[in-house]
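2024-03-11 09:14:02 DEBUG pipeline.ingest accepted 1 chain
2024-03-11 09:14:02 DEBUG pipeline.ingest length=531
2024-03-11 09:14:03 DEBUG pipeline.predict start
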Amino acid sequence: MTPRLLAALAAAATVSVALPALAAPAPNVRIDLLAAHTAYGDLGPGRGDPRAVAATALRTFAGRLHVDAGRFRFDLVQHSPIGTHVRGTEVRGGVPVLGTAALVTIADGRVLQVSAYGAGNVTGSAVAHPVSGVAAVTAALRAAGVTTTLVPSHVDRLLVPRAGRLVDTYRVAVLSERPAVARSFDVSATDGSLLGVVDDNAYVDGTATVFDPNPVVTSRNTGLREPGVDLLGADTDLDSAELTKQLKTLPLKGLDATDLQAGKLTGPWVDVIGPTLPASNGKFTFTRGMPGFEATMVYAHIDRLQRYFQSLGFTPKTEKGVNAESQLIVTPRAETYDNSMYQPGNDVIVFGTGGVDDAEDAEVVVHEYGHAVQDAQVPGWGNTHQGGSMGEGWGDFLAAAYYARTSKGFGDLCVAEWDATSYSTAKPPCLRRMDSKKKFPGGMTNEVHDDGELWSATLWRLRAMLGKNAVQQSDNVLRLVLASHFLLTPNAEFGDAVAALRAAAKQLRHPEWAPLVDRAAKVATLPLNPA
């Protein structure tokens, strides 16, 4: 696990700036956009310590954004190609309030953005004598019926809104295989009792492995299917001559030599928990029916994708990376997990089995990694239904746009064809598509995967306008969308994301892209600005 898991909620020193709570902007401030929770423009000087700058900016705009700036603590500083982003939360009694967020963006020595979401007048604070975090984990494991976990359970202490007040709560993320549990449990900090169970994972149905991206795309055969079950009726990931023919050799870069000798794949950008691999010099010749196939597939594709992000300018050497860490991945060959998911609490991606194993389709792999990337950029992403939908749409779009660079136009509109063969009756089978004609708000179904098609289709339309060929289009749009994520809070909705895309386009020195953002959003009748 990496330090960013704790960054957004870490106990950092509160920055105190002696400014009036409702101070008016200075004469040299220019406000381009002012919504209920966000202001964009030239909002004042931004030189000096980023946290102090952020505190000053929030105090200046607190009245307009309807928050109490004195309750906020800034504890995370990020860098991107468009500037420096300082994030914080509302804190009461030293404990962060769930669902609150503050974000100040600084570019070229000036404040570009101030966003804030507070808890308002809701009562409640931290208890004076809480039970221990260890006791909370014990209570969560007891509630889950779990004795052994796949990874150590991560615990956060939060003030969680419940029945109109803030309740001091430990949120414990639990991941186990037997029984299959991947949930977060809310435990009372007052007495250790169970308050509730939270499903905060990001799911996708399917399977995946060492194809590039999957055998349907490389064979250009939309009728390709897996052989089925063995003589005893078990799903054993049977091989076939046609499937083996579709295998490609991909690099496994940066493997840790010590871990490799122990049969484990670990590198700078990927850390795989899976079957023990045979001792080798790092060269594996698995077929899809062999243990370890999913592990090598996941490592190859995520490592390559992270290096691609860095080629777009999101480089950890300049502190401008996006999820530039060794992402923890679990690839169990167990039928207990039929869905793939990203679990934010443990910062872990789990790939499911059943039918076509999820990790056999690189587009599913990339989709799930997209959730981890977004959560790294915007800790706690998805406090709203629209935000959760955009998360699913982003994962789909990332997979489609990334592999459209090499597909030569085949299957670009269809995501995860190979994974979908085990459950989709469409021709071709698709997990989801990029060409949805849905409109907002009438086309919303209140299901994040379905509603995510509004966002993925909007981004796909935008992609078509940002270059003369597939590579240019994907490179430009992915750089733009990744940069725009730094301008969002966990409470973002469609209008916030559209406005962030415009602002990011200007900061990337492409102001001509801003009207194209609006053009793409208008097709789906998405709001162009925050509510």
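2024-03-11 09:14:41 DEBUG pipeline.report The first helix runs from residue 4 to 7.
2024-03-11 09:14:41 DEBUG pipeline.predict end
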